[in-house]
Design brief:
49% of the residues lie in helices and 20% in strands. It is α/β, with parallel strands linked by helices. The longest helix has 29 residues. The protein has a single domain, classed as Nucleotidyltransferase, domain 5. The protein has a five-stranded mixed sheet with strand order 3-2-1-4-5.
């Protein structure tokens, strides 16, 4: 059984909603559940908007998607890919606004949120902070026991962010147990 909203599971199953926010293109999402060494995918996909959709409508749609996924899957944590070097300041600010509505949805649901850089995610999943998209998809497929590489790439990235958080949370649990044992 995973923990109640607002608290991450200390033992047993950990359920994580991963989000790969996008300003243009699709915002990917992926829900994973980890029990011991086994991880499984519960759902993944990407939210796409019409090219003519205005920015406030995009923000509202992303917020609604996150709230619906939270309602359906009751994750223990939400993991979001952080803003990395953007082409310009305006693009970086807009992407930060997209991340803001995701973090708002997590706060409204009282679910802890965590941010990971693309390099952190790649290092966690593929063991190489410079891994290619193809390498990442192969590793996600293997770690989740999927029959095919997850598509679209935005959804694969979201699954990777969720798995990255699951790995970090499990490492923190092991460290905490080790400290308690050695006291």
């Amino acid at each position: 059984m995973h923990g109640a909203a607002g608290e991450e599971c200390v033992a047993g199953t950990l359920r994580v909603l991963g989000i790969d926010p996008a300003l243009v293109g699709a915002t990917g999402y992926g829900v994973v559940e980890v029990a011991g060494p086994a991880a499984r995918m519960l759902r993944f996909g990407a939210l796409r908007f019409a090219a003519r959709a205005d920015f406030p409508a995009r923000l509202r749609g992303i917020h609604e998607m996150v709230m619906q996924l939270v309602k359906e899957f009751t994750p223990d944590a939400i993991a979001v890919e952080s803003v990395f070097a953007a082409l310009n300041v305006r693009t970086a600010l807009k992407l930060a606004e997209v991340r803001g509505v995701i973090l708002l949805a997590a706060a409204q649901a009282q679910i802890p949120s965590h941010s990971y850089s693309p390099r952190e995610v790649k290092a966690s999943i593929a063991g190489n902070g410079s891994a290619s998209k193809q390498q990442m998809q192969q590793m996600i497929k293997a770690q989740l026991g999927l029959c095919e590489e997850p598509e679209p790439a935005d959804a694969a990235d979201a699954l990777a962010v969720a798995l990255c958080h699951a790995h970090a949370a499990r490492a923190a649990q092991r460290l905490a147990r080790s400290v308690l044992v050695n006291q």
